[in-house]
Write a structure and sequence with these properties.
Structural class: mainly beta
Strand order of the largest sheet: 1-2-3-4-5-8-9-10
Order of helices and strands: HEEEEEEEHEEE
Radius of gyration: 20 Å
Number of strands: 10
Length: about 230
């Protein structure tokens, strides 16, 4: 634990110095997510989650900056399942943690009295880990509709013994005032996370594939105002 804290502090301090050299800013970010997974092999419902991280910026041109983040997101979702194949279907809550590295260009298109800035955002994000875990361990023997998968089947990384990598396209809008920035972003899955699935569906015409997508509403607090 002490080693992890030391590495994190080193990363934070070195990132602060690096972005300052490019006329940028360094800060902390926190927000809420709303995650969904689109696949034929599960019936799902989206739920709110959260994200926490650090962010640095580099000034590219007038009104254009690059934001580089490192954050942890904890997504939640409900999958439809049942205690036995004959039982009544019910919502089963799952959680999924990811480490994310978004690279996002922010272009300010409206400046109100040099204080309030409105911008548009475009970029990409790399995501590490893909494991859906039960929040209620007493349901570990339940069946998931429609093909009666077990909850443990969705723990891709643990079963495969490797960390999954996935990519997202990012688009959004921002509002900035002094050291604060509000962001509303949509992360659209590019890669198929189910390509790592450690199982197959023994039904003709059913492929184990899908895409993950989520919304993210965040607040960034910068430690300084940088060059803006």
């Amino acid at each position: 634990m002490k080693k992890n804290i030391t590495v994190l502090l080193f990363f934070v301090l070195s990132s602060n110095v690096t972005f300052a050299q490019f006329g940028g800013r360094f800060g902390f970010t926190a927000g809420v997510t709303n995650f969904s997974t689109d696949t034929e092999i599960l019936f799902s419902k989206s739920m709110p989650g959260f994200s926490l991280g650090i962010v640095g910026t580099a000034e590219i041109a007038d009104n254009l900056e690059l934001l580089v983040e490192f954050n942890y997101s904890q997504h939640y979702l409900k999958l439809i399942g049942r205690e036995t194949p004959e039982s009544t279907p019910e919502d089963i809550k799952f959680k999924m943690g990811n480490y994310n590295i978004p690279f996002i260009f922010n272009y300010n298109i409206l400046n109100l009295k040099n204080d309030l800035l409105f911008g548009i955002q475009l970029g990409a994000s790399a995501s590490l880990m893909h494991e859906m875990k039960l929040t209620d361990i007493s349901k570990e023997d339940y069946y998931l509709d429609p093909y009666y998968l077990k909850p443990s089947d969705l723990e891709f990384d643990s079963t495969n013994g490797q960390i999954s990598f996935n990519a997202f396209a990012v688009m959004g809008v921002s509002a900035s005032y002094e050291r604060f920035m509000l962001n509303f972003r949509y992360f659209k899955g590019i890669t198929d996370p189910y390509r790592q699935a450690p199982f197959y569906i023994p039904v003709d015409g059913i492929e184990v594939k899908g895409k993950d997508n989520y919304y993210n509403f965040t607040l960034i607090y910068f430690l300084d105002n940088g060059g803006w």
